[in-house]
């Protein structure tokens, strides 16, 4: 049974969301480079320290779903039914994530990210971190060391599927195409159960 969050946790989550929403609105209105943390704090009516207590950097304001994305992939590995094949579960999770990031409402955000060197660099480092987290979950699931090359390779392919699909004319078809290759690599590595 899941215990609902208490009042304090709900308030913290609401403040975090308010800051993220305010930052995104300002970035899209004025341009990412033109908006500072002080601007975000003032507009959200919070202290600068409050912004930093919720977000480690200005870039993190744009990628406020970062931790959720990372945890969703790990949960896809650890939360599946016993003997349920891993790759189809990851494919479905990635299809859901790509559907979200390719919605019409996400297009202005991705244009902003694509035109900002700081945001592109943050996105790249975030993807590498997500791949390492996913690789560790896969390796643990298989009872292998976390630095197993095959697990790290598959995890990177899964994470890269997101970027490749986001840029494709048919994102869902791109996910399926990438996952056909991932499935072949999974089987070639002898990891398929």
Explain what you see.
75% of the residues lie in helices and 0% in strands. The protein is mostly helical and 193 residues long. Helix 7 packs across helix 8. The longest helix is centred in the C-terminal third of the chain and has 26 residues. It starts with 6 loop residues before the first helix and ends in a 5-residue tail after the last helix. The mean pLDDT is 91.
**Envelope shape:** globular
In DSSP terms, counting alpha (H) and pi (I) runs of 4 or more, how many helices?
Answer: 10
Please state roughly what percent of the residues sit in beta strands, choosing from under 5%, 5-15%, 15-25%, 25-35%, 35-45% or over 45%: under 5%
Count of individual beta strands: 0
Residues in helix, % = over 70%
The biggest beta sheet reads: none
Mean pLDDT metric: 91
Concise summary:
With 193 residues, this protein is an all-alpha fold. It is built from ten helices and no strands.
List the helices and strands and how they pair.
Blueprint: H1 7-30, H2 37-44, H3 48-54, H4 58-62, H5 66-78, H6 86-101, H7 107-115, H8 117-142, H9 149-166, H10 171-188
Keyword list:
193 residues; mainly alpha; 10 helices
């Amino acid at each position: 049974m899941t215990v609902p969050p208490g009042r304090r946790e709900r308030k913290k989550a609401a403040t975090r969301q308010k800051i993220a929403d305010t930052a995104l609105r300002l970035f899209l209105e004025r341009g990412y480079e033109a908006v500072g943390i002080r601007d975000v704090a003032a507009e959200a009516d919070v202290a600068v320290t409050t912004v930093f207590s919720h977000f480690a950097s200005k870039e993190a304001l744009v990628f406020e779903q970062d931790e959720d994305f990372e945890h969703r992939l790990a949960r896809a590995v650890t939360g599946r039914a016993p003997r349920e094949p891993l790759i189809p579960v990851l494919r479905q999770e990635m299809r859901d994530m790509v559907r979200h990031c390719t919605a019409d409402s996400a297009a202005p955000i991705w244009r902003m990210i694509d035109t900002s060197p700081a945001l592109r660099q943050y996105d790249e480092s975030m993807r590498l971190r997500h791949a390492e987290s996913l690789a560790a979950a896969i390796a643990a699931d298989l009872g292998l060391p976390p630095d197993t090359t095959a697990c790290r390779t598959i995890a990177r392919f899964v994470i890269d599927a997101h970027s490749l699909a986001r840029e494709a004319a048919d994102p869902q078809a791109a996910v399926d195409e990438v996952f056909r290759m991932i499935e072949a690599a999974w089987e070639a590595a002898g990891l398929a159960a």
